[in-house]
From TrEMBL:
This is SPOR domain-containing protein. It comes from the Bacteria. Residues 210-289 form the SPOR domain. It comes from Denitratisoma oestradiolicum. One of its GO terms (molecular function) is peptidoglycan binding. Pfam families: FecR, SPOR. InterPro entries: FecR, SPOR-like_dom, SPOR-like_sf. Residues 1-21 form the signal peptide. Gene3D superfamilies: 2.60.120.1440, Sporulation related repeat (3.30.70.1070). SUPFAM superfamilies: Sporulation related repeat.
Length: 289
């Protein structure tokens, strides 16, 4: 067994375990690939169960979505072509969460677990030039080179603009809008606009996402040549698809090497992702339960 194959098998083994000595402040819950997590300068494709820790940088590709589950129960949803930095301090994130997220570009949605006591959570989100203090809240936001937008769906947030005083927003279906280089204003939001914005961060049935317990996989081939399999594996992972490699004994002591992408709920989800892989990599991927 060569070094590259051994490393690929080790990565697959550790991804299946998803354990560490310290509790993770957040984990990846669902992924509509391509998406990457970068830690200490090393990017890896995101997959369900992957730990998210202080200083991690998260990036989604075109058409991608990611759901994160915080240790205290809240959910963060990221839209396509997003870049965020995750921060956390403290040793007990499941009971006393102290976190922050910098949204450098793209859309997000943050939904708190209202059953948790508010004193157990301290979360701040920086959206472009504005900083949001989170309370019991469902909030959607996006930053682009042209503007910062924060929409309050329910609950309460405190907005701290780069220039100006902190103020509270507690009226549902209102939004803070700040064009680049200008002071922000608060405006009303229609249900139609809310639904359109929410789709930018939502994973719907048939979108081709992977999640916990998905029983279907995509097979990106099973070459008999180890080098061919490794090249396919490394290309897919570099492109943001969290594939694994599995050696299978063949006839007369030879081997084949399956390149697999697991975690789909059903065949339809797997086929949707197969189309994305075909477009991104030019590789045919076959669904398999």
């Amino acid at each position: 067994m060569g070094y590259r194959l051994g490393l690929a098998l080790l990565i697959s083994f550790l991804a299946a375990l998803n354990v560490s000595a310290a509790p993770a402040p957040a984990r990846v819950d669902r992924v509509q690939m391509p998406a990457w997590l970068e830690r200490d300068g090393s990017p890896v494709p995101m997959s369900p169960g992957l730990e998210v820790r202080n200083g991690d940088r998260l990036r989604t590709g075109p058409g991608a979505r990611v759901y994160l589950r915080l240790a205290e129960g809240s959910t963060i949803k990221l839209g396509e072509s997003a870049r965020v930095v995750f921060h956390h301090r403290g040793d007990s994130p499941e009971s006393h969460f102290r976190g922050a997220m910098e949204v450098l570009i793209g859309a997000f949605r943050f939904t708190t677990d209202l059953l948790r006591r508010l004193e157990e959570r301290e979360m701040v989100i920086r959206v472009g030039t504005a900083t949001i203090g989170i309370r019991g809240t469902d909030v959607w936001g996006r930053t682009t080179p042209e503007q910062d937008l924060v929409m309050l769906l329910e609950g309460r947030i405190d907005i701290s603009p780069a220039a100006g005083s902190t103020f509270a927003m507690a009226e549902p279906l209102t939004a803070y809008v700040a064009l680049r280089g200008q002071a922000g204003t608060v405006v009303g939001v229609s249900q139609a606009e809310l639904q359109a914005r929410a789709r930018e961060t939502e994973i719907l049935p048939g979108d081709g996402a992977v999640g916990p317990g998905g029983a279907w996989s995509l097979v990106l081939g099973a070459p008999a040549d180890e080098e061919v399999a490794l090249e396919r594996y490394e290309r897919a992972r570099a492109a943001g698809f969290a594939v694994h490699i599995r050696p299978l004994a063949a006839q007369r002591g030879s081997w084949t090497y399956e390149v697999l992408l697991p975690g789909f709920a059903d065949e339809a989800e797997a086929r949707a992702a197969a189309s994305r892989i075909q477009a991104a990599l030019g590789l045919e991927a076959r669904p398999r339960p």
